[in-house]
From TrEMBL, chain B:
GO terms for molecular function: peptide transmembrane transporter activity. It is found in: Periplasm. One of its GO terms (cellular component) is ATP-binding cassette (ABC) transporter complex. Belongs to the bacterial solute-binding protein 5 family. Residues 72-391 form the Solute-binding protein family domain. Keywords: Signal. InterPro entries: Peptide/Ni-bd (IPR030678), SBP_5 (IPR039424), SBP_5_CS (IPR023765), SBP_5_dom (IPR000914). It comes from Nitratireductor aestuarii. Transmembrane segments: none annotated. One of its GO terms (biological process) is peptide transport. It comes from the Bacteria. This is Peptide ABC transporter substrate-binding protein. Residues 1-25 form the signal peptide.
């Protein structure tokens, strides 16, 4: 197992290296930060001065060398916009995003497994059709629209919840989580349903029924466990999408996470922050995928990593 | 390893803080919800809107301020000033003022701040935007008297100094400060990173406080969320709402915010170098049709890039807005064509996304209006970086004729800040060059006497009537939502600063 983890870590390191190179050069293709960060009346002399000060006037390959050297020494540079260490800004924002993404995904996994299994139990039934249609709607509805509608309904009209804000009080989390889970819930319900329909028609399920095992035990203990592998794969993919796509939720509900930080940095061509946030995100995603691989082994003893 | 205890503490503190503001808290803590978090709390970045709304005037004060009603320069940390000769100004400083860290405010502190702000290595917007055209040498005369000598005559130095925010001499000389220390009516009282910034009343402030004890600044990017927060009492004030969210006449206060929207014509390239074509463009635009549909119904059709209240704004031409007259436009184009002007040349209309709500729709409508009178116009919407290539000199040789959508925000109270960059031959954003106009601008901006305003008015009038380098659209209107607990009247300067001293709990 340790050998496998080492191998996966090495693969991830190669992936990360490619990513670092790609992000560095692609970011510079977006244009000159001086033209976004300086006052609108900035003349060419001021632009040249800014570029020289930030080292942007040097050959790109030389800038890359300096960047790699600094990263290897734990220095991700300072934000061109905020004049603060880029890594500090990323590490301040990241826990919020992880809290939000993992809480949402835990809720999605549990609820989608339950609902998808119920739908799969009798394919074509009224329950199945209702679940299918509602999950399709859930997966298709724009989260921006849902978020605003939810605020207007639950915060402004009913005044049950705060409109927005971040804190440990559960009321701050209900609307963001409710909006955030919708799309992955819809998708995962579909995956669970399909996977469970296939599993419930397996020989081992028929055997379990012949042995008189209860339907609940058959579905939620035996069949679901066998159907979990594709579910976990899709769930991991959805989690990655969630981490990268939290910007809308963060912007609307005022959560100080990485999504908004990253988008603001991209829009302002704040290269150090873009690079640091993508690198930290990538490390988190590579780690997640290694954990998913390990989960495969735990769930299905037939799988053995070499 | 992240400090989870710290995180949990921040969560609890944030929750406690927000709920203190929720449901009409009894204390006099004002909750201001902004569209964006401040980028930095550094004094030399305090003239940027996102930073200024928190720190400008409230935490840091300048020597002078510009009146939002008259455009005149008024005392703040300087009580009076006089011009000793063409190059030297003397400022008399307010007595008995202390910084929030108890350091005394005096001439030496001003000199220290000038060194901090004007240090080019610090990349300060205030220095880049306002102090590039001349050099200043300060001399301490005594504790409360400061002479500033410039290398060229600067007749509006007191106006320029309204942008120099004074921080404590104990503030870092090189790095941007994380803890702002000024002399203002409110002191920095900490923050939850990414969530809120708190300030409390400075009991030692020299001026007269409002009855606001403390202020909590939070931010939400979505206008509808900000509007909702005021409606349900989670916040008391937001200085900026999108027009479609300003739906509550009881709470929403429109205000002219010094921003003017217009299209700049590249007068150096045919066919736009012909005045008849430029006039035709102006006649082709149906401004009335855009009011209440694409822009706020309260926006005011404009004839110049500064608003009323700015010294140099010409009221003489305020009523000379081009009427919508497509037939007149067509006849001017026909006349130009008969004289050999290549009016069929493809013209590029360059818009900027997010320069205002409905930016793209406004530009699409204008493109259709130009096409209707027979011009060959295509629209290109750009992000700010690409837009600056069209907006700022140097422009490429052999370029096609371009009309650029732009917006100007002169909240410094003096049209000199507008005329030179937009219309002088070497103006960074100018797309025209006329030695006569140049001379008029130079004369007007060098004037320090009572004729200064009149001379600048003459430039605007000549530009509008005889040059037509622009297609003026609207003086824009913003909306603030003001909660039921407070009294606040937004003004011309609300776009860059929200003075808490002007806010009172009922």
């Amino acid at each position: 197992m340790l050998r496998y983890i080492g191998k996966r870590a090495l693969q991830s390191a190669i992936g990360l290296s490619v990513l670092i190179i790609a992000v560095f050069f692609l970011a510079r293709l977006t244009g000159d930060p001086a033209k976004l960060l300086l006052p609108i009346n900035a003349d060419q002399a001021l632009i040249d001065e800014f570029r020289a000060r930030e080292g942007l006037d040097r050959p790109v390959i030389e800038q890359f060398g300096v960047y790699i050297w600094n990263v290897l020494h734990g220095d991700f540079g300072a934000s061109l916009r905020r004049h603060r260490p880029a890594l500090d800004m990323v590490l301040e924002a990241y826990p919020v995003t992880l809290q939000l993404a993992f809480t949402a995904m835990a809720l999605v996994l549990v609820s989608a497994s339950l609902v998808g299994s119920v739908a799969a139990y009798r394919p074509g039934s009224a329950v199945d059709r209702t679940v299918t249609v509602s999950s399709l709607i859930s997966a298709s509805v724009p989260d921006f629209w849902v978020a605003i509608s939810a605020i207007l309904l639950f915060a402004v009209t009913l005044q049950w919840l705060p409109t927005s804000g971040y804190g440990s009080d559960i009321r701050f989390w209900l609307l963001p989580l409710g909006v955030l889970v919708l799309r992955p819930f819809g998708m995962l319900v579909q995956v669970v349903r399909a996977s469970m329909i296939a599993t419930l028609s397996s020989a081992f399920v028929r055997t379990a029924r012949i042995k008189g095992m209860s339907e609940g035990r058959i579905i939620y203990v035996h069949a679901l466990r066998n159907a979990l592998l594709p579910i976990i794969t899709v769930a991991a993919d959805q989690t990655v999408g969630m981490i990268n796509g939290l910007v809308i939720i963060e912007t609307i509900f005022g959560f100080p996470g990485i999504g908004k930080l990253m988008i603001d940095a991209v829009m302002a061509r704040d290269f150090p922050v873009v690079q640091a946030s993508i690198l930290v995100t990538a490390i988190a995603i590579f780690t997640l995928f290694i954990l998913v691989d390990l989960a495969y082994v735990a769930l299905d003893p037939r799988i053995r990593h070499r | 390893m992240l400090n989870l205890k710290r995180l949990a503490f921040l969560n609890i503190a944030t929750a406690a803080g927000l709920f203190a503001g929720h449901g009409f808290a009894q204390d006099k803590t004002l909750v201001v919800v902004l569209p964006e978090a401040p980028v930095t709390m550094e004094a030399c970045m305090g003239n940027n809107t996102v930073n200024g709304r928190v720190i400008r005037i409230n935490i840091y004060e300048p020597l002078t301020v510009v009146s939002d009603t008259t455009g005149q320069v008024e005392p703040r940390l300087a009580t009076s000033w006089e011009r000793l000769d063409d190059l030297t100004w003397r400022f008399h400083l307010r007595e008995g003022v202390k910084f929030h860290d108890d350091a005394p405010f005096n001439a030496e502190a001003v000199v220290t701040e000038m060194k901090r702000t004007l240090n080019r290595d610090r990349n300060c917007h205030t220095e880049q935007q306002y102090f590039r055209g001349f050099n200043m040498t300060p001399t301490v005369v005594d504790d409360l008297t400061l002479d500033i000598k410039t290398d060229v005559p600067v007749p509006i130095l007191p106006t320029f100094l309204s942008t120099l925010l004074i921080s404590s001499p104990n503030s870092p000389l090189e790095e941007f400060t994380l803890k702002p220390i000024g002399t203002g009516p409110y002191k920095y009282d900490g923050e939850n990173p990414g969530t809120e910034i708190r300030t409390v009343k400075n009991p030692d402030w020299w001026g007269e406080h409002s009855n606001v004890d403390a202020v909590k600044y939070i931010w939400r990017g979505e206008s509808v969320v900000r509007a909702s927060m005021i409606s349900v009492g989670e916040a008391d004030l937001t200085p900026e709402l999108a027009v479609q969210d300003a739906t509550d006449p009881a709470l929403d206060k429109p205000y002219v915010d010094a921003e003017t929207l217009w299209l700049r014509i590249d007068t150096e390239v045919p066919p736009l170098n012909d005045i008849r074509v430029r006039q035709a463009l102006n006649y082709a635009v149906n401004r009335e049709a855009m009011l209440g549909t694409l822009v706020s119904k309260d926006a005011v059709p404009s004839t110049q890039i500064t608003v009323k209240g700015v010294l140099g704004h010409s009221e003489d031409i305020d009523d000379e807005v081009y009427p919508y007259d497509p037939e007149k436009a067509k006849s001017l184009l026909a006349e130009a064509k008969a004289d050999g002007v290549p009016v069929e040349t493809p013209i590029l209309l360059v818009g900027r996304t997010n320069i205002l709500s409905n930016s793209t729709e406004v530009m699409e409508a204008i493109m259709a209006m130009f096409q209707e009178v027979g011009l060959n116009v295509t629209l290109r919407m750009t992000e700010i970086g690409e837009w600056r290539e069209y907006h700022n000199r140097p422009y490429p040789e052999g370029r096609q004729p371009v009309i650029v959508q732009t917006k100007h925000d002169n909240n410094r109270g003096d049209a000199a800040f507008s005329l030179q960059p937009k219309y002088a031959c070497d103006g960074t954003n100018a797309a025209m060059c006329d030695p006569e106009i140049d001379a008029m601008i130079a004369k007007a901006t060098a004037e320090s006497g009572p004729d200064r305003g009149k001379l600048m008015e003459e430039v605007f009038a000549k530009l509008y009537r005889e040059w037509v380098p622009d297609i003026h659209l609207f003086h824009m209107v913003s909306y603030a939502r003001v909660g039921n607990r407070i009294d606040y009247v937004p003004n011309l300067l609300t776009g860059i600063e929200v003075r808490i001293e002007d806010v009172n709990f009922k």
